Amino acid sequence: MKKFIFSIIATIAIAINAVAATPDSVRYHHQATDTATINDILNKSRKASLKTPAERVVFIAKQFIGTPYEAATLEGDTEQLTINLSQLDCTTFVENVIALAQTAAIDTATVQDFIDNLRDIRYRNGIVGGYTSRLHYASDWVADNVARGNFYEVTDKLPRATKQQKSINYMSMHRRSYPALVNNDTAYQEIKEIEKKCSLYSNYYIPTNVLSSTTAQKQLKEGDIVLITTSTKGLDVTHMGIIVTKNSRPYLLHASSKGKAVLIDTAPLYNYLAAQKAATGIRIIRL
Predict the structure, then answer these.
(1) Which residue among 96, 126, 171, 211 is least crowded, i.e. fewest CB within 10 A of its CB?
(2) Above 70 in pLDDT, residue 24?
């Protein structure tokens, strides 16, 4: 009898949790402000008559210059699609720009189209299903989105691309740094399984020293999305941003933790990378 009662209680608890955060629910930072920003950027993009995905990426990315940097804006008591265009970190900046660029390609696009695109980019198979359904590792994020045609990677097509395979386990090794993993053994075990899969990926990257040459720099295009690879143990990528060019040289437009805002770095991309001790190079993806 007690087992039956406990089973009923557990079922009710699961049902309540499901209602509290259904896969289609959205958590806004400030709904009125966020939706106004989305509509404003979509309207400006239409008026700008942008012809290519790269043009849309650069135009939209520049709309966020000056937006404050804020880490961990996606974390909450339950996993929901979070929309926050007033505070960005490097990942949410890139994800929002991609989702807006995809949305802006549709003449009659709405805020709901943006929401659908953002969900599709951020979550495995585009489905919100708990903390581990979010694509936490860049390698997993790229593989999942490339497989579904959201964007494509060109790193292996660039000169002197180097192949690497790395053991990925940063999140499980730093469990206490992730509140959603601390007291959740199920999520912890799921992350470990995801890390095993990520450790099997063989990825290409362009080493930092290669990017010192003008020839290599010319292979990079405005609107390219840059993933910065790292020597940090157990981790694949530490930062991401978008390439803009000045005087034919690539620069990084990104949400900078050092600058506390979205900005175009003052140093060219190669110099920026050379100054980062743990940076080993870059991966490039395009819409």
Answers:
(1) 126
(2) no
